Amino acid sequence: MAKHPTLPTLYDEVKTLTITNLKKWGYLIPNSYKSGIIHWGRHGQRTSSINILVDTYGFSPYLQISYTYNGTTISYKVPLTFLPANIGKGQVWYFVCPHTQKRCRTLYMIGDRFLHRSAYTGCMYESQTKSHKNRTLHRLLDKVFGEDELYEQLFSKHFKSSYAGKPTKRYLAIQKKLRQAQSINYDEVERLL
User: Out of the domains of life, which is the source (predicted)?
Assistant: First the structure.
């Protein structure tokens, strides 16, 4: 009898809520109360949406999530917290997972709830499903075909190659990647193919 495939759920393909997006959309302004709708889509078609409400007044800020899952209306609160930024200016926001109580910046929806990734078992990132040889080949091809993107970054409008007379870390990293791309042994590429 044939073995049934055990295909893991991929974190890369599920719906997510991120602090970055909430901040970008203006939901994480201190001492505010804002509601709205978040939509997800695929290939230009809207596939789902949720209602959110963010309350940052007082000592216990939270995110209220409301949506319909398989005909059932689901509504719950996700606590929000913040820590002072390490540069001394501002604050860094986090979700507090309602299941694991862990701080995180991304919540994943697998099943009927948005939770921290450690709340799920048997899930992986897409890169974890690739074989070692496949990952090696992918990294090598990124070096071969990624030169154009590196040059675009290097010559972009506001790119700074130095600050206070010293080369920036970003500039040095791009230079290192360009040297690696130019020193590729193409016999190795053919061997891997």
Answer: Bacteria
Burial class of residue 27, CB neighbours in 10 A (0-12, 13-18, 19+): buried
Domain boundaries along the sequence of the chain: 9-124, 130-192
> Tell me: the pLDDT tens digits for 19-50?
999 999 999 988 899 999 998 888 888 888 99
Beta strands in the chain (DSSP E): 9-10, 15-18, 33-42, 45-55, 62-69, 72-84, 91-96, 103-104, 106-109, 114-115, 123-124, 162-163, 166-167
CA–CA dist 94, 98 (Å, integer):
12
Q: Which of these, 4, 44, 38, 1, lies nearest to 22 by C-alpha position?
A: 38
